[in-house]
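Thread: guanine complex, take 2
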Amino acid sequence: MARLIDGKQLSAQVLVEVATEVQQLKAEHGITPALAVVLVGDDPASQVYVRNKVLRAEEAGIRSIEHRLEADTDQQTLNAVVDQLNKDPEVHGILVQLPLPKQLDEAQIIAAINPAKDVDGFHPLSVGALASGQPSLVPCTPLGCMIMLQQIHNDLSGKHAVVIGRSNIVGKPMAALLLQANCTVTTVHSHTQNIEALCRQADIVVAAVGRPELVKADWIKTGATVIDVGINAVEVDGRRKLVGDVDFASVEPVAEAITPVPGGVGPMTIACLMKNTLTAARAQLA
Ligand code: GUN
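Output below.
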């Protein structure tokens, strides 16, 4: 039986640490870290994410500010909201919930966020800093995955890590963080030949492709650590259910450690957003 890496428990621990440091920041500098979340439109999944972010912020003693804009908002209006938040000294972190409605240019709005407040770590300056080995604000999901991996491995040095997926939000920054931790990193994706054979060589597999239960037991080396970033809604016997990118039932007996879905990476992402908001608020003290 694999060791279960419990994201609910670990994220609660991270939140307690953040809350303690938030209180210190308040006591020593009179500053309450504040996170602004901008949500455009009424995508139901995004609404759930944003609600969870606001709840966790409260738990950590972080002030949260919500900006809800209509689905037909234009670029200029969104830019004006971001610009106002950029300039507000009482706002330390800015998150524009993705995906944005089709008429809006995501890359442009990400680049418009003040990099000091870029708690998502998506700004080109944050991406460049991570790629050149000087991480500042690091994307929350990969950061959460690294904290999970550190529960299992004291030293990641020399481990072969295979990252499945190459998104800007997870796959690419995940590979950069693993490289920074001295792993040998292979990124595989939809054009990769022999994905299974490459995965079978891995000490660590991080699956982030959004394909339900893609990763099977025969992709996994005995004793590997498996991190499942996928959250896919599927119907089983007429009932909606969340599954990861990993076929948990078959992989679990083969792996040394594995994250469940739900209750794995998901809660870690939000805890890391609070961690980043604290980091950003501290860095803005000067
Ligand atoms: N949508 C899905 N994941 C994320 C995330 O990490 N940040 C933002 N801003 N939007 C998302």
